[in-house]
Description:
- Helices cover 15% and strands 26% of the residues.
- The chain has a single domain, classed as 3-methyladenine DNA Glycosylase, Chain A.
- By secondary structure, the chain is of the alpha+beta class.
- The longest helix is centred in the N-terminal third of the chain and has 8 residues.
- The protein is built from four helices and eight strands, in the order H-H-E-E-E-E-E-H-H-E-E-E.
- Helix 3 packs across helix 4.
- Strands 1, 2, 3, 4, 5, 6, 7 and 8 form an eight-stranded antiparallel sheet that branches.
- It is globular.
- The chain binds a DNA duplex through strand 3, strand 4 and helix 4.
Amino acid sequence: MDATFFDRPAATVAAALIGHGLLVDGVGGVIVETEAYDRTDPASHSFAGPTRRNASMFGPPGRAYVYRSYGLHWCLNLVCETGSAVLLRAIEPTMGLETMRARRGLDAQRLLCAGPGRLAQALGIDLSHDGLRLDRAPFAWGAPQGPVTVAATTRIGISRGVEVPWRFLVPGSPYLSRPLPRAKPGAGPAG
DNA sequence: CGCATGATGCACT
DNA sequence: GTGCATCATGCGT
């Protein structure tokens, strides 16, 4: 998981990351949901150009971009090509479950890392991680354990760029922030 | 289960 | 002053 992995379009990286393991100080699991944001994307923090907050997005690929969301949550992004990044939205928790439960308070395992804010809280992410290299401690990566099924859908929690299918996920995973949207009636197999 | 709403900080205009 | 790349809770069905 060197810098060349991240030096590609964010959507490419976001899809490729599904199924990889991610640990922060030994705590984490398997990535099951991501979103891509890039320079041409009105929903992206980088859309209006470099600012103090998004400085990491315009730095070298393979670093973390951390920002505060709605005043109370932290969100962890992985910087890709200049001005683009992948938002980590959900992880299947496998390592350091006790630590995650302690950080999040009593919680079902299903909800430990189901959502960008929850994920960041469970992994102990805050502003001190902004700009850190992803190829060294506290970050550690693992290759997918087997074949991975990836679905692409539209993104969540944004008001612009709503139609771009840059949310990537494992369709059947119970650890998603939200399940795969149901297909329109009549548009798919009967059932 | 679904929708509505309050919490709460800061970058940006 | 405004608007969020969110989460937990409360109420109605």
